[in-house]
Every structure is written in C-alpha cells, then in structure tokens.
Amino acid sequence: MILVRFFSSFTQLLNSINPYKSGPGPSTHKFVSAQASSKHLRNIRCGRSPLNGRSALSLLLIGLCTLVLSGTVACNSFTLAQIATTPGLSSLSCSSADVSGIVNDTCIVALNAAAPTGGLSVSVSSSSTAVAVPATVMVAAGATSAGFTANVSAAGTAQTVTLTATSAGVSAMYNLSLGAAVSTMSVSATSIAFGNVPLNSPATQAVTLTSVGTGPLDISGVSIIGTGFTVSGGTFPATLNPGESITLTLQFDPSTAGPAVGQLTVGSNSSAGFSLTVGLTGTGTGILKAANSTGVTYYLAPRSAGGSDTNSGLTASEPWLSPNHDVNCGDVIEAAASTDYDSADFGSGHLGTVTCPSKNNVAWLQCAAFDGCKISSNNEGIYVDHSYWGVQGWEVTVSGGGTGFCFGAAPEWSHPSEIHHIIFANNVANGCYEGGFSFFNVNTTASVDYVTVVGNIAYNATRGSAHCYS
C-alpha cells in the first residue's frame, strides 16, 4: 500500500509514481493525488499514465482509497491486467478488395475486446447502390468479430465503393474497387452432327448456353435454318447471371433421304460476339413412314440375323422372321435391311390378320431403308392375301426362268374370301414374268378391292418386260 498522511493544512500533494516494475510479473503503476483543507477530504484520485506505448488513461477508482481515522488515506496498488477495457470497434475488412461483376464478398467487423453481455451492435453502410450491405451487424456476447456479406452488383464502369462501420462514435472504413462487368456466353458445342436418321423418326440433341462472364448475359433470341431442323426450349429474351445456363433441344426430322445442313443462331450481348452460330448436319435415310402409322412398331429380320416367329418382335434384338402375326391398323413391322430374305416367308398364308375397326388404315410391312430389303425367288415374291396391309420399300427379283409375280395381292388359296385395302408403295420389281404388281381373283366370290399402287418401279426388259407392269 501507499500511505498518504494528511496534515492540518492539506495543501501539499503527495505523489508516488512507479510506472515500470522490474522483474517478473505485470507492470504496476502507482499514482495518488489528494486535495483537502480544514481536515476535510475534498478529492482522492488514483490513476495511471502512459505505459508501454499505450494512450493515456485516467481512471477514477472509487472505493479503492480508504480514509483512515487517524487522518491517513490508504490507496491500493493495481496492475494493467486489472484495468477493464471498454469494447469498441477496431477494424473493417473484406476478403476481396478488387471485384468485378456479380459477387458476394465476405466482410468482417472486429472489436478491440470481447463484446459485452447482450452483444455489440455495429452500423454498416455503403457509398454506392452497387454494393448492398446490411444496416447493422451484431457482434455476439463474448465474441471479438462478426461477419456479413457485401452483395456486389455488376458495374457498367469501374468505380470505388467505400464501406463504413460505426459503433459508439468510432468508425472504420474499407474501399472496394469494382471493375467493369463483362458479359460472355459459352456454348456446349459449336457444331452438331445428327448422323444417319431414318425418315419420319426424329432425332434430338441438346446444346447448352452458359453465362461465363462477370456481368449478366442478355440473350435476345434464337433462330434456326435448314430443312428438317427445329429448336425448342427456353423463353426469350432471357437474362442469365454469371454461372446460369439455358439448355436448348435441337431436332432433326428428315422428310427426304439424303444429307441436310442447317444452322442455329443465338443473339446476345456477349463480348465474344453479338451473334453466335452452331453448325448442324444430318442425313435422312430409309423411306417415309405413313403419317397415320401411329400404332405399335414390331421388328423383322431374316433367319441369318436372328429372325424367328417365336420372338416377341417388340425389339430389334428379338425380331420376327415373317409378317405372319396378327396386328392392328397403324402398326408397323419394320424389316432390317438385308439381302437374305426368303420368299417362302412372305408367300400365301404368311401375312397375319389385321384388325381395323375404322376401316381407313393399314398395317405396314416396311423396310428400314428404301430398296434395302431384297428377295430373290424362282417363283413368287410377296403375296398379300389378307385385308388392310401395306408393303413399302422392298425389292423383289424373280429369276431363273420362274413365272411368278414380284408383288401380288389375291385371296388366300386355302381360304378364299374377298380382300381389300391393299397398298404397294415405293417398291422395286425386277424381271417379274407374271407381273411386277399383280392383282387377281381366286374365284367369282373371292376378289380384291380398294388397291393402291404408288411410287413403285418395275424394270428389266431382258426378263419379259411385256409382263412387268404396275
């Protein structure tokens, strides 16, 4: 203790200062001042002066000093660790000082001591609407810092934005440098090849447009040119923030056989160019399916390719051998292109019954590719003896002196009855001595009615062209 004795005049001020203590332990600062007159104590003050480079702090320590009855004042010594520091704002900082485009920047307000019970509220502001910050940030009790997010919008021009944090009259500032935002578009493919696509069997592929710049990407619209090509997906105009994307669906649905070329064009404000193009190619193959073929698709192949009438016929890996199966109008039996077909699998009694309540359609025996399914025979080719059948895309050759027809329609010999609604379309008859396309009655009551022959070819003059007709 420091003992201070007051004499009757109390006009003297006794000071005892020991700002630095040698040896281990915390530094101790003793300072006592007293003013009194006529034996009445007027003021007693204990405090400390600058120590270890800190700013001066004057504390009124009430109750540390005790008036002794003998006229002596006792004042306790104290250390720096015993002096309570008032929590206050120390600094403001962010993870990135230089930003561009739409960015969420993480920032921190820091205190010089732990926040008191109930926490400490810090006000936050921004000098520009380009950077949005919360109005206040609460530092939790016992914590020395708290984080918040500065939401940076895309800036058209470079600029500096000042963030300010304030608490109890103390402010801290932090400058953000905003670069001018750049809008850039990326496309997942610069060209798309659909390859070989059967006619009337649409193929699709996707292309993705992505905003990869630092500013919003404005897409004004998309367009497409080229026969058979279409585009869908997305609503335009559209705005994509950085990282966002739109997926478009491109479709190639050829209506004629042969190669096709197209182009997708995308309009935008991309720095890579206001107009971006994607090249499109594809080749239509086979023959066009009838527009009213909306039923089930079955599959057919020669025996050498796995064809069997015990298969389900519902997949290309389980094809039928012949069309001798009951089907419905609108169904399609798609035959794999091959030269190994046997006429015995297509003769009389080898086409199934077609159910057609509407009586305005057919079931199709159709080759997957025009002129790709070939039958060579010494007798007959394809013999249609049931109603509501259409044959399309086949080639039949009768050779070796045979006298049969290539394509014929007539009642079944074993169960003769009238047949009708028969179509032969886009077929090739080669050297058919009894006619390329023949229709005949079995007796006076078993006849053929409602027959259509369209787009067929009958040729080869050296094999009795007089009897090759369509």
Structure summarized in a few sentences:
The strands form ten sheets. The chain has a six-stranded parallel beta sheet, with no helix packed on it. Strands 7-14-13-9-11 form a five-stranded mixed beta sheet, with no helix packed on it. Strands 16-23-22-18-20 form a five-stranded mixed beta sheet, with no helix packed on it. Strand 22 and strand 23 (275-285) form a beta hairpin.
Low-confidence stretches: 1-83, 464-470
Rg, Å, rounded: 49 Å
What's the total number of strands? 39
Q: What general form does the structure show?
A: rod-shaped
Main sheet makeup: 6 strands, parallel
Overview of the structural elements:
The protein contains no helices and 39 strands. The protein is an all-beta fold and 470 residues long. The radius of gyration is 49 Å and the shape is rod-shaped. The termini are far apart.
